[in-house]
Amino acid sequence: MSSAVEAAAAGAERVRAPWRLWRRQAAAILRLEVKKNFWGKRAILMYLLAAFPVAIFFALTQFDKRAAADISQNWGEAKVIFANIFEGLVLRTVVFFGSAWIFMNLFRGEIVDKSLHYYFLAPLRREVLVAGKYLSGLVASGVLFGLSTAGSLFFLYMARGYRASIDDLVGGPGGGEVLAYLGITVMGCLGYGAFFLVIGLFFRNPIIPALVAWGWEWINFLLPPVLKKLSVIHYLHSLMPVPVYEGPFALVAEPTPVWIAAPGMLLTVAAVLVAAGYRIRRLEIRYGGD
Amino acid sequence: MSGAETIVFEDVSKFYGEVLGVNRINLTIAPGITSLVGPNGSGKTTLMNLMTGLIQPTGGRISVTGISTGEPERLFRKVGYCGQFDSFPKGLTGYEFIYSYLLVHGETKKEAEAGTWKALERVDLVGAAHRKVEGYSKGMRQRARLAQSIAHEPEVMILDEPLNGLDPMARAETIRLFRELARDGLHLIISSHILHEVDQMSDRVVLINNGYIIAEGQVSGVRDEMEEHPIQYLIVCDRPSLLAARVFAEDSVVEARLTDDRGGLFVKTRNLDSFSLLLNRVVLEENLTIESVTPVDDDLNAVYHYLIGAGGGGQA
Ligand SMILES: Nc1ncnc2c1ncn2[C@@H]1O[C@H](COP(=O)(O)OP(=O)(O)OP(=O)(O)O)[C@@H](O)[C@H]1O
Ligand SMILES: [Mg+2]
Q1: Nearest Cα to A87, choosing from B277, A24, B275, A79?
Q2: How far apart are CA B202 and CA B189, in angstroms?
Q3: Domains of chain B: which residue ranges?
Q4: Going by C-beta distance under 8 Å and a sequence separation of 6 or more, which residues neighbour residue B257?
Q5: pLDDT averaged over chain B?
Q6: To the nearest whole number, what is the mean pLDDT of chain A?
Q7: What average pLDDT score do residues A104-124 get?
Q8: What's the average model confidence in pLDDT over A36-57?
């Protein structure tokens, strides 16, 4: 009898304070998914991607004495080169493909593994499932690709030397730039993550849409300003602490100011996740025919 | 709750593209234990996935204890589903499998822990709780799924062939568990393609074939009809014509017919017990060597044909 009373009380609480329930449920999902994202069999590719730029900067600065000397002597120029490599290698390659891999597999991977029903059999708003999974993807990609960015910067500053680095980081603009790079990396995960989560939900074979998106992001610098805004890279590009030269054919658009770029991206992410929530409410468990 | 009905199907159809899953189902499942019986591919899993909202009907409406199946967040407070999916989230132990599920329900760690042990105990998996599910046997995985479906103490349990893969001991245990749960006031819907099991478990049966409900009613009615239905055996022995001569004299035998290669005998009997006695007698008296005795049409299709032929109260 008392358990019936408790259950009724719990039910009433659910109605009054759904947020509290949703938070607990999202936390439970996060716990399971983060573990999967970091230790699952699909994680290997993510580690390889994240290690890639660090390895490049390590090799460049530790084995090539001339390059190391160059960095330390032409520090201003080195920073511009770093910004270019960062955008091309870290953002457009590692963060793009890493997020594609992680976020597309949040649902697609579970359909392939035939384990999605585990969540679908719980009294769980499907939107909460989307949110929990998205957060778990953010944790995995943010941490790993953040470390990737940090590692690349670490070797850049190693080449500059200890004293000069401290001066630049503490006294100069370096500290702000490092934070900006890390912020941009996380923003990249945020934006690409939302995009690929939805792609993974709508497409049976997400490779093609991923490649189309990749092409779109690459030709972005050629696009007229209006179309430029329909991309993630444009906003990330606008946030870069050191301007990146886009080549002679670029149609130069006013960079979107930070106070629009950052919230704009968050709003886009929210809209995309709403689409995901709509889609997942109609998603069927049909492993066989899928 | 809307009245006494547990589950209501109103004109429900489900097509997988061109393929028919179930068609024009109008069905009300009352409280108690109900079995859903049908041969492979008849639509049992389709009906159960519809009841639990894992798939959406192409047409019609379904509600479970008054809740629409489009609202999983409310539905699974009341419903537990032990499906046919034999796949699990990777890397979890049996304990974590249930525990995480209860956390996803929104339970606190303490509640989830207590609930997990209770459920594992009910299906006798406590000893294997901390082993990885991947390493479980088929029967243990079946029990783990069963534990998942009762862990949150639902009012309605939907079980898709829950005895599959269980050894006779575990079967008996599980059937006892179902009876116990029913006595505690739970409503169970159990699918099976073995009528004999259904007979032991349920109050009511729903017979489904090719996506249509062909009969529903009390188990006793179905059982009576089955008892009247003669069962056919194939007996392979060294002198089938001699056996045929002896068998013809027996009352309970409806028909006896030599096989085309004359190496065996088809026998239709209404009374298995007296028939086996006769067989033993013949073996002793005539020194007959029997190679095998196999039931020939003791499968559901035969029973269905019989039931449909006899106008088994279908509604289709
Ligand atoms: N995902 C799917 N895609 C296409 N057809 C399907 C799908 N699932 C089921 N079907 C078809 O729907 C019909 C009913 O299948 P269902 O799985 O409901 O039968 P069942 O009674 O559960 O069979 P079993 O005893 O083998 O479990 C079958 O013809 C099957 O081929
Ligand atoms: Mg089935």
Answers
A1: A79
A2: 9
A3: 3-217, 228-297
A4: B265, B266
A5: 85
A6: 86
A7: 92
A8: 92
Tell me what ipTM this predicted complex has.
0.85
Quick one: pLDDT at residue B311?
41
Instruction: Check: CB of residue A194 under 8 Å from CB of residue A204.
Output: no
Q: At residue B101, does pLDDT exceed 60? A: yes
What is the identity of the amino acid at A124?
L
pLDDT bucket at B95, cuts 50 / 70 / 90: very high
> Which residue of B13, B44, B86, B299 sits with most ligand 1 atoms within 8 Å of its CB, as the best mutation to test the pocket?
B44
HEC profile for A20-64? HHHHHHHHHHHHHHHHHHHHCCCHHHHHHHHHHHHHHHHHHHHCC
Q: Do the Cβ atoms of A199 and A277 come closer than 8 Å?
A: no
Q: Where in chain A are the domains?
A: 24-289
CA of A223 vs chain B CAs: smallest distance (Å) = 41
List % helix, strand, coil for chain A (3-state, nearest 5). Answer: 80, 0, 20
Ligand 1 mutation target, pool B35, B45, B51, B214, most atoms within 8 A of CB: B45
pLDDT at A257: 78
- How far is ligand 2, taken at its centre, from the CA of residue B49, in Å? 10
SS3 B207: strand
Contacts 24+ apart (CB under 8 A), B10-14: B10/B60, B10/B61, B10/B62, B11/B59, B11/B60, B11/B61, B12/B50, B12/B57, B12/B59, B12/B60, B12/B61, B12/B62, B13/B57, B13/B58, B13/B59, B13/B60, B14/B46, B14/B50, B14/B55, B14/B57, B14/B58
Q: Report the separation in Å between the CA atom of B191 and the middle of ligand 2, taken as the mean of its atom positions.
A: 8
Whether the per-residue pLDDT at A289 is higher than 60: the answer is: no
Instruction: Point out which residues pair with B19 in neighbouring strands.
Output: B16
Which run of H or of E encompasses B267? strand B264-269
Please check whether residue B98 is in contact with residue B119, taking contact to mean a CB–CB distance below 8 angstroms: yes
- Say if domain B3-217 classifies as CATH 3.40.50.2000: no
pLDDT (tens digit, 9 = 90+) per residue, B120-130?
999 999 999 99
pLDDT of A230-284, one tens digit each? 788 877 887 788 877 666 666 666 777 778 878 888 888 888 888 998 999 999 9
Q: What is the structure's pLDDT at A288?
A: 64
How far are the Cα atoms of A30, A85, A169 from residue B151, in angstroms, in the given order?
A: 21, 53, 55
Residue of minimum CA distance from atom 11 in ligand 1 = B21
* 3-class SS of residue B189: strand
The tens digit of pLDDT for each residue in B32-70 reads 999 998 888 889 999 999 999 999 999 999 999 999 999
Residue B83 Cβ contacting ligand 1 at under 6 Å: no
Q: State the CATH architecture for B228-297.
A: 2-Layer Sandwich (3.30)
The Cα B239–Cα B255 span in angstroms is 18
Q: What is the pTM for the complete model shown? A: 0.82
